[in-house]
Amino acid sequence: MKALIDRKKCTVCGVCTDACPVGAIELKEDHIEISDDCTLCGICVDTCEFGALSLPEVGTGPAADLSSYRGVWVYAEWRDGAVHSVSHELLSAGRVLADKKGVELGAVLLGSGISEDTARELVSYGADNVYVVDRPELAKFTDEIYSNVLVELIKQKRPEILLAGATSIGRSFVPRVAASLQTGLTADCTELGISPEGLLLQTRPAFGGNIMATIICPNSRPQMATVRPKVMRPEKREGYEGEVERVNLPESCFRGRVEVLEVIPEKDQTGRLTEADVIVTGGRGLRKAENFAIVEELANLVNGAVGASRGAVEEGWIAPSHQVGQTGRTVAPALYVAVGVSGAIQHLVGMQGSKVIIAVNKDPHAPIFDVATYGVIADLFDFVPALIKRIRRERGEI
Ligand SMILES: Cc1cc2nc3c(=O)[nH]c(=O)nc-3n(C[C@H](O)[C@H](O)[C@H](O)COP(=O)(O)OP(=O)(O)OC[C@H]3O[C@@H](n4cnc5c(N)ncnc54)[C@H](O)[C@@H]3O)c2cc1C
Q1: Contact 335, 281 (CB under 8 A)
Q2: 135 lines ligand 1 (CB under 6 A)
Q3: Per-residue pLDDT for the chain (398 aa), expressed as one digit of tens each?
Q4: Atom number in ligand 1 closest to CA 363
Q5: How many domains, the chain?
Q6: Ligand 1: which of 207, 274, 326, 358 to mutate, judged by most atoms within 8 Å of the beta carbon?
């Protein structure tokens, strides 16, 4: 976007050329030209006494006719033949939003060799329509081609709301889609709703997690939000009926400048942490790196993953990939055991969706007890080894 020229009013006086702080206005023989360097600062508009310059209205570009946008969409993330579980969570949340607005719920599936069953499964989570773009160019994720395709689909079908997972893929290309469509995007929402006016209410922690901000996008479409995995609950709707549409798009969408040669899977705990049914997390109460051994021992015993508070990560006792919380991973396992973790709000937002929370802390006033299902007020160095011993004894291992 750049400043606009009304050629009928422009006298080619050159005042704006001199005024432009970034040299984006060039004086030609009988006209002026504004280059892409324009920052929309508006100085030229103020200096032009003939009213020949103006700024484009933000948010009323391609999406000006808001009423022509209808429906809620979920970007269903497909990786190596499988749909990411966050897509099921978002479809369930999207279904509620679509019902509130009385509109249809669509799912977008981009990939290569997508089976009918894979597409149909999205219907069982409440999608009325599944739009499949199946092309060899989509076999491996690249920002450029994936965003070209999603932008083109949105332009053609005009959904009013688009939800996507705040996964590494979602975080990578969804902002690009929003920028291309000149619309807003709220990242890492923890709650979604519909206002009385029908707008998407996008709630997320702000100011370091101290307040929850609800954000709206009234002037542009689609209204876009990302949500971290495990924040919403998936709900299957057996017998739900919907349509699968395989969509053909212009060849230009599939041209990219990047070729993915190889994908090397992560070796760290991160993937395991978000998928684990049981997580045992250690905090600063552990006092030193070596003491993480008791957390690891307990985690191994219950087939769980090892989590950490930022306090423990900052001490350098464990790798950042284990961190749970606002700036770490959001998790929602069946069982979350917090050992020596105080329960700062930034930690809680990443784990309070866990089904059962057991907190071990020697301070009875520690905030972790506010969210704990079972609170153990004890010295962790007494309690955890005793618990390990008890489990081993119950299993006949000692
Ligand atoms: C913008 C921002 C983002 C952040 N993101 C995150 C995040 O993603 N994740 C996160 O965890 N934090 C995050 N934080 C940091 C957060 O505010 C806390 O500082 C951090 O969670 C504290 O870690 P902790 O609970 O391990 O340590 P502490 O707050 O020091 O708590 C240690 C706890 O251990 C207990 N304890 C001590 N000894 C024992 C013992 N022997 N037996 C039993 N209990 C004992 C103490 O009573 C205490 O409650 C963030 C902060 C900011 C500002």
Answers
A1: no
A2: no
A3: 789 999 999 999 999 999 999 899 999 989 999 998 888 888 999 999 999 999 987 554 444 588 899 999 999 999 888 999 999 999 999 999 999 999 999 999 999 999 999 999 999 999 999 999 999 999 999 999 999 999 999 999 999 999 999 988 999 999 999 999 999 999 999 899 999 999 999 999 887 667 889 999 999 999 999 998 888 999 999 899 999 999 999 999 999 999 999 988 766 555 578 888 999 999 999 999 999 999 999 999 999 999 999 999 999 999 999 999 988 998 989 999 999 999 999 999 899 989 999 999 999 999 999 999 999 999 999 999 999 999 999 999 88
A4: 47
A5: 3
A6: 326
* CATH number, position 335: 3.40.50.1220
CATH number of the domain at 137, please. 3.40.50.620
349 close to ligand 1 (CB < 6 Angstrom): no
pTM for the whole structure: 0.68
Distance 275 CA to ligand 1 centre (A): 23
Pick the residue whose CA is nearest to atom 7 on ligand 1. Answer: 325
Answer whether 198 contacts ligand 1 (Cβ < 6 A). no
In a domain, 276, yes or no: yes
Question: For residue 73, which amino acid is it?
Answer: W
Residue 340 inside a domain? The answer is yes
Whether residues 14 and 152 fall in one domain: no
Q: 122: CA distance to ligand 1 center in Å?
A: 39
Say if residue 205 is in the same domain as residue 325.
no
Contact assessment for residue 243 and residue 106, using Cβ atoms and an 8 Å cutoff: no
53 contacts: CB under 8 Å, gap ≥ 6: 3, 4, 5, 6, 10, 16, 44, 45
Instruction: Give Cβ neighbours of residue 264 (< 8 Å, ≥ 6 apart).
Output: none
Q: How far apart are CA 156 and CA 179, in angstroms?
A: 17
Residues with Cβ within 8 Å of 217's Cβ and at least 6 positions away in sequence, in order, are 183, 184, 186, 199, 200, 202, 223, 224
Range of 26's domain?
Answer: 4-54
Regarding whether 163 and 184 lie in a shared domain, the answer is: yes
Examine the domain organization and report whether 121 and 238 are in the same domain.
yes
How many residues are listed for the chain in this entry?
A: 398
Asked if 93 and 9 sit in the same domain, the reply is no
